[in-house]
C-alpha cells in the first residue's frame, strides 16, 4: 500500500514553500500518494471554515501531514473561531498531536545570521519538546463573563483555565527522556512551580518519570530563568521539555537565536508516531507571492516526516544532506543572504536541493 | 514628618547589596527614617513565615519599601506557602502593587557584557510594564484535584485560572500610555489573543484606552513573537505593557539582553504611587557572603524610589549620576568585569558611589 501524504499549503508563503517540498518528495522516486486540501484563510475563502471537513478527513486518513503556514492580516476581523490559526489548533487537538519537536540548530554557514555573538551560538543544537494538546490552550472553562468574585466582582472579565492531568504530563515527559537519551543525555524541564499548581504537578510527575531513565540527567528550571538562560548561554541546553504555553514562547525564542528561522522544521506527533510537519516560521504575508521565501524549513520538515512518520530514514538523510550541500555551495534566499553568497529565489532553491540529491 | 523607608534585605546576597543602598541613601543627608525587617527565608528562620506580620506591617506603614531579594535552595523542601518567594507575592498583593516597571538599559560602558552583537543592543533602552497583582498568579480557583471532565477525567490534575477584569487592564494600560508619552511615545501591548479569552479582553480594553492617548503609537504583538523580536531587534521597542505571566518571562528575557542584569532596578507601584523597589536580579545564594555581589541594581532601585515614591527627583539624579561616574571610572564588580577595568567588591563599589556623589 502506498503511503498517503496530506499536503496543506495554507496562506501567505505557504503555497510557494510547500510546492518546493512536494517537488523534493517527488524527486525521491518513492511511490507516495500526495493529496492536497486548503487550510486556514485559504480554506475559509474556499469553504467558509479554516478547517473544513474535507481537510480534516484527509489529515485523518493520511499517514502524515505536510503543512505550510496559516494566517494573513486580512482575516483579522473574523470572529476567533473562523480565523486561520484555529485550523492548526484544531488539527493538533483532533489528531491528538501532543508532542511538538522543535529543533533550534545553527548551521555553521549561517552563524552570522544570528543577532547573538558567534561564540554564544556557534554549534547550537537544542531541541524543544512542547506539549501541544493541553494546558491553557484548550482548558475549560474559559470565556468572557461578569466576574463572579474577587475585588473586581461584577466587572467584565476574561478567563482561561490552565490544566494538565498526570497522564498527559507523563507521556510528554517520556518523549523528553527518550529523545534526550538519543542525544546528549540532558533534559531540562521548564515550569513555574514556584507560582502555579499545574506546574507543581508537572514537576512532580516529570521527577517521577525520571526514575525510569537513570541515564538521563534531569534538571528543572523556572520559565523566566529559561528565557534568560536561552539568551545568556543557550548551549547549556540539550533537550527542553515544557507545556504548551511556555513552549510556544520558548520555542520561538530559541528559533530566533539562530537568526535563521527560515531553516527550522518542526514535527507534531501523536501516540503512534503519525505526525504533522511544518516550518517553524509563519506565513509571512508581506512577502507572499514574490518568489523570495525560503523553502528550506519546509523541505527539512518533509525530511523529518520521512524519518518519523514514513519510516524512510535513508531518504530523510538524502534530503538533509542535499540542504547542507546547497548551503555549502553558497546559495541563499533573501532572509539568510549575506555578502559573498549567491542570492536565489524560492524555486531556484528548490531546484538546487533536487539537483544536490 | 520624616519619610519612612521599610528596608527588607531578604536572603542570599540581599543583605550585602541592601547595605550599600542604605549607605547611599544615608549619605544623601536627608532625614529619612529607615526601619528594617527580615523577609523570605530569613524571616522564615526568624519567625516561621516568609512574610511575618511585623514585616508586612512595616511595609504597609512605610512611604516606600526597599527590597533585597529572596530565595535559597535550602528552603526548597518547604511547602509552597512557606517558601521565600511567597513573601514577594504576598507583598505585591497585600500592598496592591499592580504596576511593575522594569527598565532594560544597556550602559555604553557595558556593551561587551551582552551575549548579543553590539549593533543589536547598543543604546538599548526599553521599559517593560508588567501587571503584578492579577492573572494566573493569583486567579482562583486553582489546585490539584481529580479531573472532573475531559479526556483525562478521573486522573490527578493540576489547574490554575488566568483572569483579568476590565478595570485591572484599564489601569495598567493607562500606566503604559502615560509612561510611553514621557518617553519615545511608543507602546506595544503583548498578549496571546489568538488563543486566550483573557488576552482578547486585554487587547480590546487596551485598544479602548488608546483613544485617550492619540499621541502614543500603540501596537499589539503576540507573546511568542515578542520573545522572538526581543532577540532579533530589541531596539524596535520603547514601552511594552503586558500581563503578570507574560511579563515575568519577557522582563527577564529583556534584562538578560543587556548582559548586565546586575545593573537593573525595578519598581512596583500601587494606585497612589507608593512602591516597592528591588533589583531585577535574584538572590544568587551561590555568591552570598563573599562580598563580590554587584550592589548597583539595588542602589539604582533606591534612586527609583527617591523619584517615584519619595518625591526627591534631584536626589535620584544625584545617585544615578554617581553610578554613571563609577562606571566611567572603570570600576566593575565581578559580574560585569572585563579586561582593562578595575575589579572591586560590593563595599568598595558602595564607597565609590558615595564618593562620586
Ligand atoms: C498560531 C498559534 C495559535 C500557534 C500557537 O500558539 O500554538 C503558533 O504560534 C505556533 O506556535 O504554532
Ligand atoms: C519569585 C517569583 C515568584 C517572582 C515572579 O514570578 O513574579 C520572580 O520571578 C519575579 O519576577 O519577581
Describe the secondary-structure layout.
The structure is a homodimer of 357-residue chains.
Chain A: E1 4-10, H1 14-27, E2 33-36, H2 41-47, H3 53-61, E3 64-69, H4 85-95, E4 99-105, H5 118-121, E5 125-131, E6 143-146, E7 156-165, H6 166-182, E8 186-191, H7 197-209, E9 217-222, H8 223-232, E10 239-242, H9 244-257, E11 265-269, E12 275-279, H10 296-308, H11 313-328, E13 331-332, E14 342-343, H12 346-356
Parallel strand pairs in A: 1-2, 1-3, 3-12, 5-10, 8-9, 8-10, 13-14
Antiparallel strand pairs in A: 4-5, 4-11, 6-7, 11-12
Helix pairs in contact in A: 1-10, 1-12, 6-7, 8-9, 10-11, 11-12
Enzyme class (chains A, B): oxidoreductase
Pfam families (chains A, B): Iso_dh
Cofactor (chains A, B): Mn(2+); Mg(2+)
Amino acid at each position: 500500500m502506498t503511503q498517503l501524504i496530506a499536503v496543506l499549503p495554507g496562506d501567505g508563503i505557504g503555497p510557494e514553500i510547500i510546492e518546493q517540498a512536494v517537488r523534493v518528495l517527488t524527486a525521491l522516486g518513492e511511490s507516495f500518494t500526495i493529496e492536497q486540501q486548503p487550510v486556514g484563510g485559504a480554506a475559509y475563502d474556499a469553504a467558509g471554515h479554516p478547517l473544513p471537513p474535507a481537510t480534516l478527513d484527509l489529515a485523518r486518513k493520511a499517514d502524515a501531514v505536510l503543512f505550510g503556514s496559516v494566517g494573513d492580516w486580512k482575516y483579522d476581523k473574523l470572529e476567533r473561531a473562523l480565523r486561520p490559526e484555529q485550523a492548526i489548533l484544531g488539527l493538533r487537538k483532533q489528531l491528538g498531536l501532543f508532542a511538538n519537536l522543535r529543533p533550534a540548530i545553527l548551521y555553521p554557514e549561517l552563524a552570522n545570521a544570528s543577532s547573538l555573538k558567534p561564540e554564544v551560538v556557534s554549534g547550537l543544537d537544542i531541541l524543544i519538546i512542547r506539549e501541544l494538546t493541553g494546558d491553557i490552550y484548550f482548558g475549560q472553562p474559559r470565556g468572557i463573563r461578569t466576574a463572579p468574585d474577587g475585588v473586581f466582582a461584577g466587572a467584565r472579565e476574561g478567563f482561561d483555565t490552565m490544566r494538565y492531568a498526570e497522564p498527559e504530563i507523563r507521556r510528554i515527559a517520556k518523549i523528553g527522556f527518550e529523545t534526550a537519551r538519543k542525544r546528549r543525555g540532558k533534559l531540562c524541564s521548564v515550569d513555574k512551580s514556584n507560582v502555579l499548581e499545574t506546574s507543581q504537578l508537572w514537576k512532580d510527575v516529570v521527577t517521577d518519570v525520571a526514575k525510569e531513565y537513570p541515564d538521563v540527567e534531569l534538571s528543572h528550571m523556572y520559565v523566566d530563568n529559561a528565557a534568560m538562560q536561552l539568551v545568556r548561554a543557550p548551549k547549556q541546553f540539550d533537550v527542553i521539555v515544557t507545556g504548551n504555553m511556555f513552549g510556544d514562547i520558548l520555542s520561538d525564542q530559541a528559533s530566533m537565536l539562530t537568526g535563521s528561522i527560515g531553516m527550522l522544521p518542526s514535527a507534531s506527533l501523536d501516540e503512534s508516531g503519525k505526525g504533522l510537519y511544518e516550518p517553524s516560521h509563519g506565513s509571512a504575508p508581506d512577502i507572499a507571492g514574490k518568489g523570495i521565501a525560503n523553502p528550506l524549513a519546509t523541505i527539512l520538515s518533509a525530511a523529518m516526516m520521512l524519518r518519523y512518520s514514513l519510516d524512510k530514514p535513508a531518504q530523510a538523510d538524502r534530503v538533509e544532506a542535499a540542504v547542507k550541500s546547497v548551503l555549502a555551495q553558497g546559495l541563499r534566499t533573501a532572509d539568510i543572504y549575506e555578502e559573498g553568497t549567491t542570492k536565489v529565489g524560492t524555486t531556484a532553491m528548490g531546484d538546487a536541493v533536487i539537483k544536490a540529491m
